[in-house]
Structures are given as C-alpha cells and as structure tokens.
Amino acid sequence: MKEITREGVSYMTIRRLPQYMPLLRAALDAGDHCVSSTKISDFFGLDPVLVRKDLASIGITGQARLGFPVRELIGGIERFLGWDNLSEAFVIGAGNLGRALAGYGGFGQHGLKIVALFDTDPEKVGKVIAGKRVTDMTKFASLVERLRVPIAILTVPPEAAQDAADAAIAAGIKAIWNFTPTKLTLPDAIIVEQVDLAASLAVLSSRLVSATRTPRQYEEQPVNDM
Amino acid sequence: MKEITREGVSYMTIRRLPQYMPLLRAALDAGDHCVSSTKISDFFGLDPVLVRKDLASIGITGQARLGFPVRELIGGIERFLGWDNLSEAFVIGAGNLGRALAGYGGFGQHGLKIVALFDTDPEKVGKVIAGKRVTDMTKFASLVERLRVPIAILTVPPEAAQDAADAAIAAGIKAIWNFTPTKLTLPDAIIVEQVDLAASLAVLSSRLVSATRTPRQYEEQPVNDM
DNA sequence: GTATTATCGATAAGTGAATATCGATACAGC
DNA sequence: GCTGTATCGATATTCACTTATCGATAATAC
Description:
homodimer; DNA-binding
C-alpha cells in the first residue's frame, strides 16, 4: 500500500484517526483530562507505539506518564480531517442507499453536511428525506455553482455512474464519494474515494470459505509428523 | 497491514481480485479467449507484475505472449472467493440501508444471497423488499438454525449494534458484515468485516482539506477501502 | 527525598507488499 | 525457418508501515 498523502501522514494513519474519536469523546465525557496511547491501543488491538506515531504525525504531543490531553487530541484530529468546518455535499441518486445516507445523522460529527438529493426520476423529485429535498438532476449544475458545494455522493445504479460523475465534475464538484461498484475514470485533479463493497465482501467470503473448507483456519499448521 | 489470510494470499490481493471480474466478464462477452496482465493493469492503473502476482497467488497460470485464459481466470477467482456457491445472509435492521442492500441485485454475482430482513419495529415487520420479507427479530434464532444461514449483515443503529451482534452469534451466525460504525467485540472465531465509512470519509475530507488549503495537487490512489 | 512505574519520543530493526529487472516462451510477420 | 515482440514467471530491490528497544520524564508511593 503505497500512498502519497499529506505532509507525511500515511494513508493507514488517516484511516485510523477517525476510529480513535469515539473513544476520545467517551473519555472526555467521563471527565478524563488525558488518555494514554496504551489505553487506545488496547481498545483497538493495536500497538501503543503505532498510536503514538499516528498522533505524532499530525503534530500532537503527549506527556510521559500522563498520556495525551484529550481535548487537544480531539481538536487536533478534527482539524486535521477537516471536521471542524462542515463541508457540504449533494447526493446523486435518491434510491434506498442515497436515502439511507441522507437520513444518517452521524455525518455532521464527521464534518459532512448533506444538503440535498438529486434524481432524474420524476416520481422521486419533490420528496423530502430527513429535511433534505429531492431535486431534479437538471438543476444540479446551477445549484452546485450557486452554493459552491464541493462534494458529490454517488449512489446511482452502476450503469449510470460514469455519466453522473462526468456531469458532477462538469458542474464544478471537487470530490466524489463513490458508492457504486463502477470504476470511474476522471481527471486527476478530482478527488475520488471509492466505497468498495465488492472488495469488503470478498474479504468476508474468502474468510468464510477458509473457515468452512478447512476446519482449522489461520496461519500456522504444525507441519511435521502427525 | 498485517492480516491473517489464506494460503499466502495477501489481504490486498483479496481486495483486488473482485475488481478484476467485471473486466474479465466483459472480455469473455467480447469473445476473447485470453487476457494479458498488461490489459488488466492498464485499466486499473496498476503494475502488470502486480496483477500477475495476484493471479499466481490463487494458482492461475498464464502463457507467454498470450496472457491468461479468461474462462479459467473467472472460474479460479470465483472459486477462491466462494462465489461459485451462494452463501445465504440475513439482514438485521430494515432501515434504509438494510433495504438498500436487500434491494441491490448485484450480490448474487458475488456469491451472496440475502434471504430475509429482520427488525424489531412492528411497523416494518411484514413488509416485503425485493421479494424478501421483513421478519420479527424474535424469530431470528430459530430461522438461522433451521436454514443454517452463516452470514448476518448488520445495519441497525450504532447503539443497537453490539446487542444485535451478540444475538446473531448466539443464534449460530458465523460471519458478520458490519455496516454500523460500532466496533464489535466478539469471539475470535467469528468473522467480522467492517465497512468503515468513517475511515473512507476521513480519507476523502483529508484530501479535500489538502486541496483547498494548498492549491497544489496530489497523486491518485488506486487503493480502495472498505 | 528517593524509588518505582507508567508513559512518552526517537531510533533501529523487521515485515510484507509493490516495483524493477531479466531470461524464457510463443505467436506474428517476413 | 528466422526474427521481433509481447508476455509470462522468478528473483532481487525498494519502499512503507509496523514492531521492538531504550533513555527520558513525571506522577505516585514510601
């Protein structure tokens, strides 16, 4: 996994940071001033050194014997991930998945605000999901321009994905969160993050195959004599 | 990324294999007998050697100048991932996300068959989504036992996730595909695959932060998450 | 005050995956 | 048949991430 990332923060670190957050918030609620890397690493089954490295890489420094100041930690991670000021997003595709995402209340904590949904189906246009209106796709471009929305969340059927993505970037969208299985080919300047359910399912089912086809799974088998 | 994997096939390889499939199926439809690693790698922006290594690791061998026999390739990957015989799954949580997954027709191609949905909400029980009945959660255990369903797809609210997962494995579920942001603590023998939207979003927004705070631009990233 | 211990930060070592290199192979064109 | 070229497979190298080690620090116990 070779990733060019920002200011020397590795891809894997970026993926771990948000996972630390619930634990940190819980600690804050519990009134703790400091959290140790050991405490975090125990919870997630990681090495404490790894946690310290993650935190160090975004410029947070702890104190020996005490740990890391929770408040500063939360603030630092939020700032690094851009969760401190909300980015607005449009959902393209108001099917079940689009509606599920629009209805999920947790994204606000993650710096994402879904503003509206778009669809071509006149049946769906005009409905309101969790306070967000489903708008006709023909209005997409003008609204992106007017509201300067940087993110499109793509939840259209696979065969419509490339066209929708093209339309989105033509309208000025900077980043696409792609929930379709379609591999998009887009200009390099566009940020694309793929939610790859097929890959995730592959890991699951491949493990299941191992578990069922061989009674003993996992690494080592005593190779020698029986 | 250190992962326990089967027979020396790396985690990253397992995640790439399913992505190759659409291209292979397209090649098959086009009547090609062979596909070269170059063709695959070009499409996905990978190194051809990497593709060959992936294929070699699941025991598929090609021929110089020709490439890899498409039919054998597809068969091999499907067999490896367990897509050749469907695994059945129950969806726990018939909210928008659960319904979206139940309504998605593509999982059949990936060896997954969603049999039914479960929910505790009497409002939802009895409804039918894409031919699958929403059943009361109280019937879950007996149905898992009777139908020997190995997989649970978890789409309940975050705060209900741990309880639902506990109930699932008590009923005999072997693998959990967890779409909730809750980190589940379960026996080691249970296979858990986490769809980590928070991590995916973190990568997206962290890139967006870089792009907006510094005008410069970055490389691409073919690595997919979740 | 001194000893103990948990924890940090830095550096070094280890691990595993991606990439580069190269000889071998088999088809295509002449 | 000979040559050229695309492709494979194997080995070696590079690179990134994780783990191990160790001295320093600061709270706590005595």
